[in-house]
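Late entry, written up from scratch paper. The run itself happened at the end of the previous shift, but nothing got recorded in the book at the time, so transcribing now.
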Amino acid sequence: MTQRVSRDALPLRRLAVVLAVAVLVTTAGCTSFTGGGGASGSADAQVDSVPARADTIAFVDAQGMLGDDNLRSIANTYFEQQAELMGDYYSGPKSTEDALTQMENESGLSANDVETMTIFSSAKKQVGGQQGEFSGAIVTSSFTKDELKSALTEESSTSYSTETYKETTLWVAPKDSYSNTQDAVAWLGDGRFVIGNLAAVKSVVDVDSGDADAVSGDLRDTFENTRDGYVQFAVSVPQNQFDAGNYQSGQFDTSSFNSVQMVSGAFYTSGSDVGMTMNLAANTTADANDIKDVTSGALSLYKGLVEDDTVKSALDKVEVTKDGNTVTMSYENSAANIQAAIEEIYNTSASSSTSYAAPAL
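Output as recorded:
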């Protein structure tokens, strides 16, 4: 089934795209073999404004990423290879600058003006026992209030309602009749704003005004103890909604993953290297031992099945370690090696495509 997107919500969707573009264009290609400047991660997350009910926090240093020459080079290589492989069928960007320009033309906002994003969400039931979407992004930027308002309202036949909530200006989209959700943006001042569904946006205003508590406890501690990076995240795994199963396939038993309480990680650069880490915090050390064994075994098996030397070399950079009840998977490689791997992967794909001959009819 294809989900219908309300036309009323499109300007907010455009704004969300602007917020995402800094991540997309600067990490493009890196996930090809990670599963997904100087030392990164100097900007601050807006954790003090994240509502207490959040069970997920993520931070993106958009300005840092856009200004990192290594990430820009990797992204450019990815776009160039994608365009070369697709040929005349490709209509996407051919460089980082192309991607930024296209997004600015579509939204009226420049991704270069986005400084940081602190993203949060919750899978918990809302007050009153009702289940509903609760997610948002707190943005620091160089936008003015008028620029933000203009981006939300232009190119739309919909009249957005302007509301005042605790002396804070909200722009509220009409409720979507299909999903029964309602999006909003609140101007927090000094280039700060929050975008998300209405309940989440109002909750941030509540926290900022001192009428509600900010996130705390294990989730906040885990997030703040995650290594610095352009992207950092922490997720409190909802035990009553998560089931890794008790599946056994040959030597692998994944039931130990049911013990994971917290997942965290980071995406970073250090000198000319680009790296990622992901931590799985389990209930006990014994559970962590099982998770490490299963993960290491699966990685070894996959390496044995891969024939391409470039991919094998990238997989050799993946490390699985354990400290107490926490298992850490890490990947770090030079930007030059990552670019070479992207080119090799796309060259292999192109060779496979051209060598295929359709059977005679």
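The CA atoms of residues 8 and 158 lie 6 Å apart.
(Scratch paper discarded after transcription.)
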